[in-house]
Design brief:
The structure holds two protein chains of two kinds. Chain A is an alpha/beta fold. In chain A, 36% of the residues lie in helices and 25% in strands. Classes of the chains: A alpha/beta, B mainly alpha.
Chain lengths: 233, 327
């Protein structure tokens, strides 16, 4: 299977403090999990791939395009969608306005913006109910649905999700698992998660990160099913 | 969704705009036309400032520059190139947008106090330029009287009543433009950028471009207010571009209610009323007290009516302030 994303010898530092050391990961189709304890560098890795942090070394290829050091908005235009951990929304905008600006960014003027927004609301029917509510009034689960729906518009080549089920009720986590599984058939994903059952359920490859280094890799669905990665959490 | 809905036109609160237009149409029955016009264009200037501050969270101490360049651009064109009002106002507008386009990249790379200071620095620079090196064209401290203004088509621009209602018609169009901008994707993106630039970038938008386009639009509005007001007055005062004028602009937006459409109109009305009443009661000594009084009112409103008088009045009328009426 051809690789969608190839990260080679990626390093990153906050000033003098290096937090990523020669990271090498590849992600093809389906779902690639990145796991590790708090402070391992998982979020920093996603932020660096998304262009929100500038690496001090290494290379990031999206398909054949070198995206190392490009600004975040250009990387997003090239097809990487990033859903950060903090479930942050624009509190002054309505749910619909969120979907509108996200759909416009990904589909451009010629795209069927309204049709895609309808599809997103079909995926997450709850969003239809809160369509005209200001995002400041949404619950944590609704905010996360909104963030994921925003990331799924257009020709997304890779979806990166940073702990999407953190803080969600078990029932909602199950719903997310179903949505992720279904969506992963269309869009490859990188999933940062701590939820072992979910990881075993959806991932085809897993990297374990510790203190900024990859210390373990599970390369096939069978390996992931065995759950050996869980001992590192 | 129809094309009109996409452009935000069908979602405009027409009663607000029509109400304001009718209000300014009858205001000359109670106040001199010059004062009425001053309230209107200072309010639009306050709105221009507030697009950047109330929605983009970018505090500008440089909008007097845009107002002044618009006013002087029109006045100098009248005196040196043509008496055609359309051309003169057009030149004023073009110059304003050109200045904003030139200083925008330097100012918008900075946030918060630095953006405010860079904008103020440019305002001071241009003010000095207008006072000294460009004095032969600007009239320096004395300001610039417009010496010729031709009639346009069948419209006699020397008739102040006709001119008043033409200006009001243009102001009506500017109000619609502001509403369209705020209801559009760009309005939403400007607000989004003020909340989280990194999230906006993650969506695939350049936050710099959003802020830059907003600054150009804001400068266009401020320049239009300046050019139109100078054309109505037949004069451009050096105060229009003075850095101290920014305090008045901030006063108008904040006292009325930053982040609301009607707030700057209330702020402008209060400012002009204060100036007028002080001048009537104290003569030319009024200016000595005016700045102090403005400061005192800012303190009172910020302590007692945070969010501005519009929100307070809205709350009094409706019981609770539930949304931002500008959007």
């Amino acid at each position: 299977m051809s690789e969608i994303l190839e990260v080679s010898n990626l390093s990153f530092a906050y000033g003098q403090a290096q937090v990523l050391f020669d990271i090498n990961i590849r992600t093809g189709g389906l779902v690639t999990g990145i796991v590790g304890r708090n402070g391992a560098g998982k979020t920093t890795l996603l932020r660096t791939i998304a262009g929100l942090e500038k690496p001090i070394g290494g290379k990031i290829l999206l398909g054949k395009t070198d995206i190392t050091g490009l600004p975040a908005w250009k990387i997003s235009k090239l097809g990487i969608s990033y859903v950060p951990q903090d479930k942050r929304v624009f509190t002054s905008l309505t749910t619909y306005e969120h979907l509108l600006i996200a759909a416009n960014a990904k589909l451009g003027k010629s795209g069927d913006v309204e049709g895609e927004i309808e599809k997103a609301m079909d995926y997450f029917p709850r969003l239809r109910v809160v369509k005209d509510s200001k995002a400041s009034n949404l619950s944590g689960g609704e905010r996360q649905m909104l963030n994921i729906a925003m990331a799924l518009f257009g020709s997304t080549k890779l979806l990166m999700l940073d702990e999407p089920t953190e803080g969600l009720a078990p029932a909602l986590t199950r719903t997310f698992g179903e949505v992720l599984k279904e969506k992963s058939r269309e869009v490859p994903m990188i999933l940062v998660e701590q939820n072992v059952p979910l990881l075993k359920d959806v991932c085809d490859r897993i990297y374990v990160l510790e203190e900024g280094r990859i210390i373990h890799e599970e390369k096939s669905r069978d390996e992931v099913q065995e759950g050996g990665f869980a001992k590192y959490l | 969704m129809t094309v009109l809905e996409k452009k935000g036109i069908s979602r405009i609160e027409w009663p607000q705009i029509l109400g304001l237009t009718v209000f300014f149409a009858v205001l000359p029955l109670f106040l001199p036309k010059t004062l009425s016009m001053q309230i209107l264009f200072y309010a639009l200037l306050g709105l221009a400032f507030d697009l950047m501050y109330g929605y983009g969270n970018l505090l500008s101490f440089g909008h007097a520059l845009f107002f002044g360049v618009g006013a002087y651009g029109a006045a100098i064109t009248f005196n040196t190139i043509t008496g055609n009002p359309l051309v003169a106002i057009g030149v004023g507008l073009a110059l304003t947008v050109a200045v904003a386009a030139a200083i925008g990249p330097a100012a918008l790379r900075r946030r918060d106090p630095y953006f405010a200071l860079v904008m103020m620095a440019f305002n001071i620079f241009f003010y000095q330029l207008f006072v000294a090196p460009l004095a032969p064209w600007t009239g320096s401290d004395m300001g610039l009287t417009i010496r010729r203004m031709e009639s346009f088509w069948i419209i006699d621009f020397s008739n102040k009543t006709i001119l008043y209602y033409i200006m009001l018609a243009v102001a009506f169009l500017l109000m619609i433009l502001i509403k369209i901008f705020m209801k559009s994707k760009y309005g939403a993106l400007l607000i989004a950028t003020s909340e989280s630039e990194f999230k906006v970038e993650s969506l695939g938008y350049s936050s710099f471009k959003i802020k830059y386009l907003s600054l150009l639009f804001s400068a266009f509005l401020a320049g239009a207010s300046g050019a139109l007001f100078a054309t109505f007055l037949g004069y451009s005062a050096i105060d229009f571009i003075a850095p101290t004028f920014n305090i008045i602009i901030v006063f108008i937006a904040l006292i009325g209610g930053s982040g609301t459409f009607l707030g700057p109109f209330i702020g402008s009305f209060i400012y002009i009323a204060l100036t007028y009443l002080l001048t009537v009661t104290m003569g030319w000594h009024a200016s000595i007290y005016l700045d102090g009084l403005i400061g005192l009112i800012i303190i009172i409103v910020m302590m007692k009516f945070r969010g501005g008088l519009y929100r307070y009045l809205y709350q009094l009328a409706k019981g609770i302030y539930v949304r931002e009426p500008m959007r």
